[in-house]
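debug: dumping io for the single-chain case to check the tokenizer round-trip. Nothing else runs in this session.
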Amino acid sequence: MGDRHEATQGEERSGVRQGTSDAQPGDVSQSAGSLRQRIAAMGRHARTAAARLATLSTERKNAGLLAMADSLEAGAERIVEANARDLGAGVRAGLDDAMLDRLRLDAGRIVAIAADVRRIAELPDPVGEVLRDWQRPNGLRLEKVRVPIGVIGIIYESRPNVTVDAATLCLKAGNATILRGGSEAIHSNLALAAALQRGAARAELPEHAIQLIDEVDRTGVRHLAEQEGSLDLIIPRGGRGLIEAVTAAARMPVLKHYDGVCHVYVDRAAELEMAAAISHNAKVQRPGVCNAMETLLVHREVAAHFLPRHGRELLDAGVTLHGDPATCELVPEAVPATEDDWGREYLSLDLAVRVVDSLDEALRHIARHGSRHTDAIVTEDEAAAARFLAEVDSATVLHNASTRFADGGEFGFGAEIGISTDKLHARGPMGLEELTIYKYVVRGSGQVR
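debug: decoded output
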């Protein structure tokens, strides 16, 4: 999505032209340059924009965000029409229900997306925060100051709302962005981009602060990942295949989010009504997202009381249970689990269920089959909870709460750029602070070493 773009003769076009109100694939004229050259130009433009963004006041950035939110709501009808084209193409292409749910936009979701943008405007600006200050014996005064990362490339698949989340979060944190969405959401992304651009134009934000690669050629992913001189960070959001492809090609740091194989462990000291409610919510409320529960572990001492009744509740909700032998004995409608079911990210109304003999066995199962995303324990035993929270090596661990809370909005971050399962720089839901880095500011009075 190109923020107020000034095209110059001979310069490659970068993203969607500012002010385009009804952009569709092919509506914007193509330059003679190759896709690789165009993406390289986008990187140069983004680097220039990043320098200006880093010095914008909080007030200027917030005014831009509020204008973008208004523009999204004003353009809702056109966005929904564009999204309908993507949904129709998705149905014809045989996308499953989970993928179609990720792709779908309606008036209610657009209002929610705009509300997220306004919440981002209300959040404290992390840029310029002094994380630490001190003075050395030689009189040097030092500050550790939070600053933008610079230019961030974001590659994502079917969720068009990521176009807005990524653009607005990065902008609030002072970063320029280059976005590359999936082919299945191209019409939706272009319509969202056009709405955001109208708002950005009214707020007079830096040109090229936000750009979208509006071609769906898969080589664009590789070309973007090769822009080592322009991009400071690249974030892939999508399936394992996409993440592995970006990681293999990238010449800059990559923030990764691999599978969301989330577990709920019902301990022998669990309050079973609570456990059933948490389990149901974690699986059924929205099964096609990365923080949905994929495996339910139940302590053997409560399995006979818990699984028959709760298993029926899940079955009635349309869930297919893939159970170990103990589970299949207690819930005859369950289908036998295979070894591949442990560690599978279904993203559907499927659930692996296993009966374990102890907390130790639950911990071993999660360590072997989990994806270090989000895992929860349900128990009234504080010692068991403390062990689980300390020993499970995941980005988010919860006690007596649904895995569905592993989300930037639920954490109070506003919208999120993604969920990182890495261990460097950022981990878990990534909000504004995770889109900044720091530098050291040193003030002296003529000191030499």
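debug: round-trip ok. The first strand starts at residue 130 and ends at 135.
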